[in-house]
Structure to design on (1028 residues):
C-alpha cells in the first residue's frame, strides 16, 4: 500500500470523509487514492480559498474536520485567508499540503518554498511527514490535533515520495478527549457573582448551541444578569423558539452602552472582547473601567455543562425566554438593508443554514430574523473577507438536507467567486443573495471614521466598484449557477421563494444602489 | 504630515509610481494619501493575488518596482502565490502590508496574525515600521532592497498608527547600486572553456535582453557552443530580427537530449537547471554525469556586460544569427494547440507583450512565434498558477503603448479571474486568448507520469472542469470585458485581429475540446 492510500484510509477511519481539494502534480497519488478509498469524497474547487473556506463551513456544521488538499506553499498561501477565519472559528480542519519529494528539494525547483513557516500563521499543529511508514500515524495525530483546544487547524506537509512509496501503514484513530471540565470551584465562585445587571455573561463558541443558549437564558431570567453573544460567532442557533441574544457590536462606541455598568464580565466560550480595529483618538478597550473579566470556560472546555450547572444552581424551575415566531410583513419598494433583511426573514426555510457575509448591507438581518424560522447562523469570524460563498458551499456538503441561504456582499464575493462552480458541480442546495451596492461600502464608512482629512476623490475611487459595474448574473451563469437580478423588494421575495424551493444552487442579485 | 503621506511621497521620490491595492480599514490613511500625493497612481484590484501578480508583470516590463498595498496577514496570504512567482522572476516589488495599530495588537483582534513569518516565504527583506518618524526612511530602504540581488520582494509591515500619526518625514531615495561586475578572471577562465558543442551556455534573467541574446548568439556562432534559455523566463525578447534560443524543456527526459554531451554548463543569469517535480523511478537531476556547472553570472550581476566581454574575446567580427520574419499560413479548421499557436503568431502586433500561461495548450507557441513580430515574452516563473491575467494587467500598466496578448489556460485563469475587472476599469489594451479545454489537462498527463495504478474514475473527476463547463464569455462580460467565443481557427484569427486593433481589453474564448 502506498503512503497516500494509508493516509486517506486513516483519515476516513478517523472520521474525515470529505476532502476539498485543488491538487497539483505533487498530490497526484492522494488524488489517485480516491479510487482505492471510495469512502473519501473528493470535492474539487477552482481555487484554494474556496477549499479552505468550505472546510471551515463543513466543520461548523458537522462538528468534525474535513480535509483540504493543497499544492505546496503557493497553494497554502491561496488558502490562508479562510484558514485564518477557520482558526478564529475554532473549526477543526486537517490541511494536507503536498511538497516536493524529500530528495528533490535540494535542487530548489521553482515551486519550492518554506511551507511550515506559512502554516504556523494559522495552524496550531504543523508537521511534515518524513516516511511512508509513518504517514498513517501522522494523519491520525493530525485529526486528533484538529479537535484539540476546541478545534484548530492542523497542517500535515506531505512530500511526494512519502505519498507514492510503497510501505504505507494505516493507523487507528487517536482518541480525542472530550471537552475538558471546568473546575467546579470556579463555577461555584462565578455563581456567586451572577447577581444582577452588573454582571454580563459573554457567550461564544459552543455556548451558542440550543442547550447553551437555553441555559444562559434561564440564568439571565432568574438573576437579572445580562447576556451578550460574541461579535462574530462561528455558529449560532437562532430563530423562533430559541432565546435571542444580542451580539457584541462591531464598533467600540456601540459596545460601550452594551457593557455600561458592568462590573463583572464572565467569558463562557468566548475570548475577551476586542475591537476589530483601533481608530485615531478613540478608545479601543471594550472592557469598561472597573469591570473585571472572568474567563470561566475557554474554547475546548465544556461550556454547555458549565451553563447547565449554573442554571441548576441559579435558575431552578425558571424557563428560558424564547422568541415567538414572528416574520416581518412582506417588504415592498426599494431594496435597502431593511427590505433585504425582511425579505430574507420572510422566506427563510425551516431549519436553514444562514451564512452572513453581507457586511454593511446586512445590518438589519439580526433584528429581522430573530423570530424567523429556526436556523443556524454562520458569520465571518476572522474578518478575512471571501468567506461567505465557500462556507455556504461546505455547510451544504455537511448538511445536505438543510437549505443554505448565503447573504453575500459584492466586494467580498469577488474574493472567492469561484465557489459558485463547486455549488453547481455538486448541485448543492445553496441560495446566494448577492447584494450589489457597487462599492466597498464599509470602507467608505471606515474612511470617515479614521479621520482622514482633505480631498478624497482619488481615495474614494479605490473604494468604488462602480466602473465597470459587476454583473453577478453573468458571473454566476458563467460558473453554471442559475441567476436572476432583482430591483424591488417584491421581486426579491418572489425570487427567494422560488430559489429556496427548487433544488440546486441559485443566485439572486440584489441591486442596492445609492 | 502623517506617516502615510511620508511613506507614499518617499515611494514616489524613489521611483515607485504605481500601487496595486486591495486596502482595508488599517490601510485607509495610505489610500487617503493618494490625494495628497497625486504622483502615486492607485490601481484597484478585486483580489490580492491580482495586485501582486500585476506588480510582478509591471516590474518585468518597467524594470523597477510597483508597490502593492495589502490588508494584514490574510491579505498577504491571498497575494502570496503571485509574490512567489515574483520572487522566482527576480522582480523588484515593494509590498506594504497594513497591520493593527501598535497599541491595539495586545487585544488579539480578529484580524491579528503573525505577518512577518508569512512574508519570509517570499521576501528577501521584511521589516515592520515602528514609528512615523521612520516610515519614510523605511520606505526608501524597502525600495532599495527591492532592487538588490537582481530584484526581490521587499515587505514593509505598516501599523495603522504609524500610518496615521503626524510626524512623518519623507526620505531621500537610497542609492541603488548597479548590477555588480563579474570578476574578470572568472570571465577569462570561462572564455577558455567555451570551445565547442560540449559547452552549453544557459541564459536567464537579464541575459534575455536583446543585448544579451545578440552577444550570446555571436559567441555560439563563433565557437560552436550551444545556447539554452532557462525553462520559464521572467522576460525574454523574441521574434523577427532577434536570435531565437531554445528553452530548457519542462520534463527531465526532454532535457536529457538538450544537454547530451555537455561537459561544461555555464550559468549566465540563470539558476542551475532544476526539474519542476520528481517522479517515481525517474531521474531528477538535469545535469548530465560528467558535466561541470560553472555559475559565471548570478542574478544581480551584470550578465550583459559579461556576454559582451565574452563576445569581444571570442566572436570579434562575428554577427549574431537572427530569425527572419516568418509567420505561419493562416490556420484553418479545428482549434488545436497548433492552430492556436499559428493564429497567435499570425496576428501578434508589432512590439507586443506576450504573456504565456497556456500550460498544455501553449506547447506550440514557441515554434510558431519565433519569426513573428518582435515581442517580449513573460512566463510563469514560479509555477504558481493564476499569474497570466494579473501579469498581463500589470504589464499593460507599465507599457501603455504596447499591446498585450495573454494566452491563458482555463483552470489557471480561474485562480485570478478578477483581473479582468481591473483591465476593464483601467481600459488596458490587453487581449486575453482564453483556452477552454474543460480540464486541468496538465494534471491528466501528470497522473499518467507519476505511475498511479488501478482504477482512476474518481481521480479523473478531480481533474475535469467539464461539469459544469465554464463560460468565459459570461465571466468576462460580468467583469466588464467584451468577449466572444470561437470554435474554428478562422474565427480565432478574425477575432484576434479585431481585438488587437480595438483599444481596451478583450477576451476571446477558444474552445479546444477533446
Amino acid at each position: 500500500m502506498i503512503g497516500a492510500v494509508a493516509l486517506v484510509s486513516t483519515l476516513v477511519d478517523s472520521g474525515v470523509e470529505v476532502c476539498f481539494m485543488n491538487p497539483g502534480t505533487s498530490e497526484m497519488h492522494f488524488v489517485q487514492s480516491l479510487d482505492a478509498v471510495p469512502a473519501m469524497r473528493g470535492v474539487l474547487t477552482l481555487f484554494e480559498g474556496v477549499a479552505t473556506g468550505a472546510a471551515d463551513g463543513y466543520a461548523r456544521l458537522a462538528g468534525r474536520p474535513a480535509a483540504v488538499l493543497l499544492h505546496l506553499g503557493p497553494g497554502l498561501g491561496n488558502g490562508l485567508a479562510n484558514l485564518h477565519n477557520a482558526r478564529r472559528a475554532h473549526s477543526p480542519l486537517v490541511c494536507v499540503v503536498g511538497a516536493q519529494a524529500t530528495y528533490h528539494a535540494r535542487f530548489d525547483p521553482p515551486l519550492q518554498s518554506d511551507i511550515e513557516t506559512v502554516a504556523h500563521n494559522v495552524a496550531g499543529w504543523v508537521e511534515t511527514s518524513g516516511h511512508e511508514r509513518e504517514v498513517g500515524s501522522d494523519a491520525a495525530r493530525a485529526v486528533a490535533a484538529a479537535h484539540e483546544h476546541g478545534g484548530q487547524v492542523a497542517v500535515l506537509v506531505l512530500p511526494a515520495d512519502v505519498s507514492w512509496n510503497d510501505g504505507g501503514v494505516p493507523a487507528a484513530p487517536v482518541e480525542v478527549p472530550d471537552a475538558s471540565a471546568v473546575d467546579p470551584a470556579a463555577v461555584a465562585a462565578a455563581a456567586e457573582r451572577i447577581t444582577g445587571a452588573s454582571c454580563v455573561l459573554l457567550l461564544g463558541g459552543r455556548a451558542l448551541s440550543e442547550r447553551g443558549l437555553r441555559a444562559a437564558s434561564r440564568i439571565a431570567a432568574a438573576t437579572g444578569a445580562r447576556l451578550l453573544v460574541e461579535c462574530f460567532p462561528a455558529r449560532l442557533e437562532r430563530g423562533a423558539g430559541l432565546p435571542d441574544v444580542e451580539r457584541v457590536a462591531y464598533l467600540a462606541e456601540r459596545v460601550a452602552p452594551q457593557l455600561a455598568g458592568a462590573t463583572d464580565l464572565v467569558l463562557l466560550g468566548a475570548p475577551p472582547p476586542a475591537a476589530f480595529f483601533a481608530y485615531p483618538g478613540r478608545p479601543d478597550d471594550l472592557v469598561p473601567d472597573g469591570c473585571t473579566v472572568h474567563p470561566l470556560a475557554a474554547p475546548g472546555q465544556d461550556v454547555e455543562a458549565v451553563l447547565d450547572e449554573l442554571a441548576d444552581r441559579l435558575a431552578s424551575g425558571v424557563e428560558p425566554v424564547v422568541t415567538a415566531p414572528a416574520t416581518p410583513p412582506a417588504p415592498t419598494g426599494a431594496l435597502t438593508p431593511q427590505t433585504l433583511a425582511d425579505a430574507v426573514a420572510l422566506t427563510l426555510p425551516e431549519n436553514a443554514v444562514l451564512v452572513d457575509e453581507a457586511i454593511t448591507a446586512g445590518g438589519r438581518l439580526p433584528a429581522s430574523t430573530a423570530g424567523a424560522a429556526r436556523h443556524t447562523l454562520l458569520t465571518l469570524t476572522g474578518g478575512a473577507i471571501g468567506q461567505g460563498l465557500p462556507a455556504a458551499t461546505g455547510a451544504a456538503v455537511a448538511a445536505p438536507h438543510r437549505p443554505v441561504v448565503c447573504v453575500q456582499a459584492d466586494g467580498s464575493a469577488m474574493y472567492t467567486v469561484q465557489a459558485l462552480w463547486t455549488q453547481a458541480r455538486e448541485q448543492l442546495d445553496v441560495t446566494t443573495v448577492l447584494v450589489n451596492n457597487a462599492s466597498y461600502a464599509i470602507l467608505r464608512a471606515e474612511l470617515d471614521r479614521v479621520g482622514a482629512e482633505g480631498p478624497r476623490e482619488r481615495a474614494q475611487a479605490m473604494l468604488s466598484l462602480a466602473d465597470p459595474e459587476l454583473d453577478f448574473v453573468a458571473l454566476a451563469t458563467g460558473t453554471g449557477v442559475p441567476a436572476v437580478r432583482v430591483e424591488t423588494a417584491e421581486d426579491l421575495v418572489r425570487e427567494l421563494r422560488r430559489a429556496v424551493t427548487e433544488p440546486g444552487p441559485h443566485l439572486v442579485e440584489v441591486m442596492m444602489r445609492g
